[in-house]
Amino acid sequence: MTIPRDIIPLSNTVVPSSPSLSAFFNAGASPSYETSYFPVVPKKQLKPFNTGDIRILLLEDIDRTARELLQKEGYQVESHTSSLRDSELAEKIRDVHVIGIRSKTKLTASVLDHAENLLAIGCFCIGTDQVDLEYAAKRGVTVFNSPFSNSRSVAELVIAEVIMLARRICDKSMEMHFGTWQKGSTRSREIRGKVLGIIGYGHIGSQLSVLAESMGMSVLFYDVVPLMAIGKAKQVKSLAELLVSSDFVTLHVPETLETRDLIGRTELETMKKGSYLINASRGCVVDLQALCEVMRSGHLAGAALDVFPREPSDDGPYFNEDLARWVTEIRDLPNIILTPHIGGSTEEAQEAIGAEVGGALLRYINFGCTIGAANMPEVTLRSLTVAEESHLRVIFIHQNRPGVLRQVNDILGDHNVDKQMSDSRGDIAYMMADISKVDSTEVQALYTKLEVLSCEIPKFLSPLRPYFGSTR
């Protein structure tokens, strides 16, 4: 294992274009160490590593706000406008320290096994179901997401779809495009006075509730936990009660074993005759084959789908029968709005997500702060400053089992520990120690001891650099 260096005072020298990782990690203990490996950074902040050595891979056209934020910090950022195929993803992820994705890229255990230096994953979206969170945590990889930044965009789309379905706008527009003038009010209704049923009353559901009430709708919602209603909204006790009472039903739930096929044939037939279904959550939540059959029977008056069980990996003419057998049936249904997973795809939402997740990644890489992490204990840490230039921050992510912390403290006890904290989340524990009055010889000895310790404790993550733990 390569030994990380001590914290050395910064200089205003130019960073080489491509310093080697071995030079970076050996800098504190090597006689050939030169200060030219330090970037120019604000004087108040001290980072014990060369930011130019941090490699970041961004996929799926992540907003430029994130790219610019990370590039400004001095990281190496590689950006792609689409997702990568499994073989290419496995190769690309091998050497990067951070990967940023949206909803298409699947970071399974088999993909993560190829990641030799990965420290963090940024999910630039609401959900994290595209990542194996538990396996990532066991490998010491922290996952961040944006649980609310695009909530308003999704809520506005749903409100628009409610109105368009009630007025049959899509069918009328299509008729006009084909040259047919068909004026009439048959099956065209106002939404004022109607009941909106919201399944999942989180960030999106609650915002949607406010918008719907402001337009004269009554709101019912169903959630698996008791929640405080906003405005005049009312929580119902069961899904069936919501379905039978609502004119419009909209889904805002995560993808879990419990929510898979949450709306099947039984639930669709339970809905009021002439009602509408909207799904802007996850594609697996609705049984699309059952939806096609119930809509053809005339029981439902319309539907809007923004998500699907299978979605094309690239933009283009790929939403066809080659994707799944239900595609052709859905495309032929009347009064159905189909959108390509764009609920959160507004410029405002993507900019906010880029700033939120990009900022979380930056704080984690620079300081070890885990606030907003989806699979780690959440710990707030400030940065070290130039006044603490002889300090070292050690962070260990390890298996939460009796005796680990005692063994670590037996090693840290030989040093001047200014601050220490430990927290856990399930089987994963996170320990931080700020040590002062450290020289490069002590750093080498400290990490040598911790490396030996890591071999004796399953899933204990030994550090590669002062801020981080890793399985390598």
TrEMBL record:
The keyword Repeat does not apply. It holds the Pfam family 2-Hacid_dh. Pathway: Amino-acid biosynthesis; L-serine biosynthesis; L-serine from 3-phospho-D-glycerate: step 1/3. Gene3D superfamilies: 3.30.70.260, NAD(P)-binding Rossmann-like Domain. The keyword Acyltransferase does not apply. Keywords: Amino-acid biosynthesis, NAD, Oxidoreductase, Serine biosynthesis. It catalyses: (2R)-3-phosphoglycerate + NAD(+) = 3-phosphooxypyruvate + NADH + H(+). One of its GO terms (molecular function) is phosphoglycerate dehydrogenase activity. Residues 393-468 form the ACT domain. NCBIfam families: PRK11790.1. Belongs to the D-isomer specific 2-hydroxyacid dehydrogenase family. This is phosphoglycerate dehydrogenase. It comes from Tuber magnatum.
